[in-house]
Amino acid sequence: MPALEVICSLIGWLCLYLLFCSTFSHRGPEWNCRLVTLTHGVIIVLLTAYVVFVDGPWPFTHAGTENTDLQIFALAVCLGYFFFDLGWCVCYRSEGPVMLAHHAASIVGILLALLMGVSGCETCGVIFGSEITNPLLQSRWFLRQLGLYDSLLGDAVDLLFILLFATVRVGLGTVMFYCELTSPRTLLIMKFGGVVMYLLAWVFMVDIARFGYKKTRAKYRKWMVNRELKETSEEKPVGHEE
Fold first, then answer.
1. Distance of alpha carbon 17 from alpha carbon 156, whole angstroms
2. CA distance 113 to 59
3. Global pTM?
4. How many of the other CB atoms lie within 10 Å of CB of 2?
């Protein structure tokens, strides 16, 4: 268990948060915490993408294998962040039970992979699939705060977020889930953790689908109203003959 790396990661994310607090002192705590979350999302997606697609091994065929040094490093960086973010969420009571359960399950899953020294490749794959939509989620929040959400840019961010979540986290996540369950090397406790994370992904997917439906319906209604107003304004008044 690379305890020192995890502690250094936690201290690093905390220092980054304090740096943002001093730099953006006119902003609230959530603004600065989300900047840390955005930074972590970008870094961990790039790091786990390298671990999964370049360094290897391939998680779909090597689930349950021994952890590599780079996998351990990536897991330690991510675990330190989740400790920081969970502590912040509990302190400020900013998240509901589902998100807190997601954080807790992520911490337990990463801890198990580090403590047992196996399943690092599929854990990194799960982190990649889970965090790839995070920068878009944070961008959406920042656009709202800046008053830029109700625009073409906001629509593009929402659309890309929904597509990525459905294809990567749920689509590829289902394949990853199947490979983990059927792998003879994967320990039973890691398979149970995979079940928990997969169920949480579907809980989020249902909420996202509802959001997408409501937004699409609102956009359609707005388009219909604007169309009716345009047609009304283009109609010429009929004159009366004397």
1. 28
2. 14
3. 0.86
4. 16
Angstrom distance (rounded) from CA 162 to CA 241: 58
d(CA 200, CA 209): 14
CA–CA distance, 207 with 228 (Å, rounded to integer): 32
Per the listing, tokens 């740096």 go with 19
pLDDT tens-digit map of 83-118: 999 999 999 988 888 888 888 989 999 999 999 999
Q: From the CB of residue 117, how many other CB atoms can be counted at a distance below 10 Å? A: 11
Reduced 3-state DSSP string for the chain = CCHHHHHHHHHHHHHHHHHHHHHCCCCCHHHHHHHHHHHHHHHHHHHHHHHHHHHCCCCCCCCCCECCHHHHHHHHHHHHHHHHHHHHHHHHCCCCHHHHHHHHHHHHHHHHHHHHCECHHHHHHHHHHHHCCHHHHHHHHHHHHCCCCCCHHHHHHHHHHHHHHHHHHHHHHHHHHHHHHHCCCCCHHHHHHHHHHHHHHHHHHHHHHHHHHHHHHHHHHHHHHHHHHHHHHHCCCCCCCC
Q: How far, in Å, CA of 215 to CA of 167, rounded?
A: 20
Split at pLDDT 50, 70, 90, the class of 235 is low
